[in-house]
Each structure stands twice: as structure tokens, then as C-alpha cells.
Write a structure and sequence with these properties.
- By secondary structure, the protein is an alpha/beta fold.
- It has a domain of 230 residues: SGNH hydrolase (Rossmann fold, 3-Layer(aba) Sandwich), CATH 3.40.50.1110.
- It has twelve helices and seven strands.
- The longest helix is centred in the N-terminal third of the chain and has 45 residues.
- The protein is globular and about 75 Å long.
Length: 332
């Protein structure tokens, strides 16, 4: 009888292991499907054709292209470019397609959008804040190179608590979490400009040249703390691919460094950790874009910033006129 009991127990053990494997496999599959569904839903919402900033700017570009005029320069990037570059100040045939919260995982989708235009731009200039260049909370995880992401996670496993986050939370879930759990960051890139305005009861609008104008202002924080700006090779790989993809279609791509308030600029240039991180980023930007790099840092006084990183309309006008002068001075 004891032998039979032992045999029965040994026969049950594999069934228990199979049950656990199936149980955890189902949990993993459900979690993965939830991540994929949330990310797809988030991307549909972010790129909705209705009242989103992307939708407003895309419609504005379509209206400009319908005039039949050539599209000289297309400016793209995050909210600092969206609020800061007014092409009508120097070239009525250029347009600002930048939108708030733009980060490197969206570069591939942006390249597809540009190449699908009925009339392609003669040049593209892009600007992204150091905060977005150094983060790995990517919104569009479907366009990420998995090998590069894995190498980045392994390389930063012990020094960065966020290193494995992309393998746990995809873009949609991550974006939802960031609405409530926003980690502190050196670069004041979030929340997006129009979200800030709405939260304060203000208004935002997109001008015919694509400039995002946000009414109202908030007190600059006056950065006085040094902090590390992480260097993530995957983000610069995505920048290189963006430049190469458009370059193969005959569209040269350049880079713009946008300005910040003097307090933040001071930290970027004198803070040991911040300045080291920015210097490494700058070297990589120079490698990718060569001589097509325009730095507009220090060109706008603090009184013309709406906050630490985003310009008021007067600041955008001042910056854009200086940008026009820099562009005119470039060899043709």
C-alpha cells in the first residue's frame, strides 16, 4: 500500500508543475496583451486627428501644402521647438510640426509621416531636450530596436533603477503611470505644454506656421541642483536612423539646441554631473549631424520664457529671427 501511495504522489507532482507553468504562462500572456492593447490605444489617442496638438499641426501642414508652395524647412521635435520656432518670422514656406512630449521612440513614425507627404520638405531640423534624450520611458515601443534596448538595460542594470522598465511596462501603461507617478528629472520637459495650460485654466492654439502659443505663464523654478543626465545609446541610434532614412530620400537633417532659462543653463554648463552628461550628448549629436548643428542657447532673456523651458510668443519671435539669421548664413 505504501508503494502505491508513493507512486501516486510522484505522478501528481508533474501535474502540479504543469499547472504552475500554465498558470504563470497565462498571467504572462494576459499581461503582455494588456501592455500591447494599452500601447495601441495610447498611440491612437496621441495621434488622433481631432483636437490633439499633433492633429492640429498636421491639418495646418496639409493646408499649407495645398497652396502649392514649396516646403522649405520642416521643424520637428518636442514642446520646446513647438513653442519656440515661428517659421513665418523668416520663411513663410517653412512649417513647425513639433509637438509636446515628442521623444526618440516616435522618430520612425515621424519619418514615415514626412516621407508620405505629397510634397516633401527640402530640409528638416529637429530638437529634443536632454531629458528626453536621456530617458527610456518610450511611448512607441513597437518601433524600438529590441537588441539595442536589451543592451541598454544590461549596461545600466546596477546604476539605473529604470533600466528594466521597458521590458515590464510598454508605452501605453508607462504613459498612464506617468500621469500619476512622474519621477523627478533635471530637464523640465514634462508635462506637455498644452497640458500645463489646461491644468492652469489657460488656452493654447496653433498658429498658421505651426507655432504652439500657450497663454499665461508660471514662475520659473530656478534650478540650483546638479543631477545626472543619463546617456542612452539607443536614443542616438534612433536619431541616426531617422537622419539616414530621410537622407536616403534626399532630405538633409540638422539639429537645433533650444535655450533654457539662465538658472537651468547654468546647471547644464557648470554642474559636474549635468555638464558631463550634456557634453557626451553634444559629442554624439555632432557626430550624427556634422556641421548641421545650430545652438540657440542663451539667445532669449528669462523674461520671455513661460516657464523653465518653454518660450512665450515674444521669446519665440526673438528666437526665430535669430534662427533665420543663422540659417541665412549657412552655405547654400
Amino acid at each position: 500500500m505504501k508503494r502505491c501511495s508513493s507512486t501516486s504522489a510522484s505522478e501528481r507532482r508533474p501535474d502540479g508543475r504543469r499547472f504552475l507553468l500554465r498558470f504563470f504562462g497565462i498571467i504572462l500572456a494576459v499581461f503582455l496583451l494588456a501592455n500591447v492593447a494599452a500601447t495601441r490605444a495610447y498611440l491612437r489617442y496621441r495621434y488622433r486627428p481631432g483636437s490633439s496638438e499633433w492633429g492640429e499641426k498636421t491639418r495646418g501642414l496639409e493646408r499649407q501644402l495645398r497652396t502649392g508652395r514649396p516646403l522649405h524647412i520642416l521643424f520637428v521635435g518636442d514642446s520646446t521647438v513647438s513653442c519656440g520656432v515661428s517659421p513665418s518670422q523668416f520663411d513663410p514656406d517653412s512649417y513647425n510640426l513639433a509637438w509636446s512630449g515628442f521623444e526618440p521612440s516616435e522618430l520612425a513614425a515621424l519619418a514615415r509621416q514626412i516621407l508620405a507627404l505629397p510634397q516633401r520638405p527640402q530640409r528638416v531640423y529637429i530638437g529634443i531636450t536632454p531629458g528626453f534624450l536621456g530617458q527610456n520611458e518610450w511611448r512607441n515601443t513597437f518601433d524600438l530596436p529590441l537588441t539595442w534596448v536589451a543592451v541598454d538595460a544590461a549596461r545600466n542594470f546596477y546604476r539605473d533603477t529604470n533600466s528594466m522598465k521597458p521590458f515590464v511596462l510598454m508605452g501605453g501603461v508607462c504613459a498612464l503611470g506617468n500621469r500619476f507617478l512622474q519621477p523627478p528629472s533635471l530637464a523640465p520637459a514634462e508635462p506637455p505644454a498644452q497640458a500645463q495650460a489646461q491644468a492652469k485654466g489657460g488656452e493654447f492654439g496653433v498658429e498658421p506656421d505651426g507655432l504652439l502659443v500657450v497663454e499665461g505663464s508660471e514662475q520659473a523654478q530656478g534650478f540650483d541642483t546638479d543631477a545626472e543626465i543619463p546617456f542612452r545609446p539607443v536614443n542616438f541610434h534612433l536619431l541616426q536612423e531617422f537622419k539616414d532614412t530621410l537622407g536616403q530620400a534626399g532630405i538633409p537633417v540638422g539639429w537645433i539646441w533650444m535655450p533654457y532659462v539662465s538658472g537651468f543653463e547654468h546647471i547644464l554648463t557648470t554642474g559636474p554631473r549635468a555638464s558631463a552628461g550634456l557634453a557626451r550628448m553634444s559629442r554624439e549629436i555632432d557626430r550624427i549631424f556634422g556641421g548641421a548643428v545650430i545652438s540657440l542657447r542663451g539667445t532669449v532673456p528669462d523674461r520671455e520664457f513661460r516657464d523653465d523651458a518653454h518660450l512665450q510668443r515674444a521669446g519665440a519671435v526673438r528666437l526665430s529671427r535669430e534662427l533665420g539669421r543663422r540659417l541665412a548664413a549657412l552655405p547654400s
